[in-house]
Design goal:
Blueprint: H1 4-30, E1 63-69, E2 72-77, E3 80-84, E4 94-99, E5 105-112, E6 133-137, E7 148-154, E8 167-168, E9 186-187, E10 189-191, H2 193-196, H3 200-203, E11 212-214, E12 221-230
Antiparallel strand pairs: 1-4, 1-6, 2-3, 2-5, 5-12, 7-8, 7-9, 7-12, 10-11
The structure holds calcium ion (2 copies).
One calcium ion (CA) binds near residues 113, 115, 120, 130 and 222.
Length: about 260
């Protein structure tokens, strides 16, 4: 019976080996292959089981962008048009889209209060409207006074509603590009929720931690450009890998000074 402990040991090792193999098989089953790993991505079509492995982003690699402007905005990331408010005036709405973040991430926004270009007023020149902008991304990016802001349309000058005049400054053609020099711009000014008075869609979306921004003058500055550059995910997530990025429409990068 001398060999009995040895036999037990061998059976034990054998069982461990089987358990290990089973767990490996299980983890393989649990791991759903990405499209690019199944060998059926565009780069691999026609090359049975071979070809380069191209890592492609999945929807889980995106973050949600929630954006609310009084009254309208368009938003660029690293020079590419990413979101446009689908309602130019009212009702006030939240634009909520999936974005594929890339760092450093320069966010450039043109926001407009509804204002007649000649009077700065709205509702047939009877009313002085005010602006406001707020944004939150799923990576923790939020609007606050660290953003840069500059007004390009002011009026009515001195708030004169009886004899309304306006001032328009030329918008630089490359305002949405990462290398645009905004170092001479003032910082955005944070405004209270009470001052902006957001409507119900704002409360139905996640804007926790984000501040309402504009220039100092919520009422008289009507077209405002905001810019910031996010070096890495503010929520501490690791910087994602460099994904392949197409350029579907180069016109998104041009002629945007309107
Ligand atoms: Ca206004
Ligand atoms: Ca407004």
């Amino acid at each position: 019976m001398k060999s009995f402990p040895f036999l037990i040991l061998m059976i034990g090792l054998g069982t461990l080996g089987l358990l290990y193999q089973a767990s490996q098989a299980q983890s393989q089953d649990d791991r759903k292959p990405r499209a690019d790993e199944r060998g059926n991505g565009p780069a691999e079509r026609g090359k049975k089981g071979g070809g380069p492995k191209i890592a492609k982003p999945r929807i889980t690699d995106t973050v949600k962008a929630n954006i609310y402007a009084d009254n309208w905005f368009k938003l660029y990331i690293n020079g590419n048009l990413v979101a446009v408010d689908s309602i130019s005036f009212i009702p006030h709405n939240v634009v909520s889209v999936d974005i594929l973040p890339e760092y450093p991430m320069t966010i450039a926004v043109m926001a407009k209060d509804n204002a007649d270009k000649d009077t700065g007023l709205e509702y047939d020149n009877t009313n002085l409207g005010d602006g406001g902008f707020v944004l939150k991304f799923g990576d923790g990016t939020v609007t606050n006074a660290s953003w840069k802001a500059k007004s390009f349309f002011h009026g009515p000058i001195d708030g004169d509603l009886k004899n309304p005049k306006t001032r328009h400054d030329p918008i630089p053609a490359n305002w949405s590009e990462p290398d645009f020099d905004d170092s001479g711009w003032d910082n955005a000014v944070e405004h209270s929720e009470e001052a902006v008075g957001p409507k119900e869609p704002f409360y139905a979306h996640d804007f926790a931690g984000a501040k309402w921004i504009w220039t100092e003058d919520l009422a008289l500055d009507n077209t405002v450009i905001f810019r910031t550059t996010i070096a890495s995910p503010p929520n501490g997530s690791p910087i994602p890998r460099a994904w392949p990025r197409g350029k579907i429409d180069e016109s998104n990068r041009a002629d945007n000074a309107k």
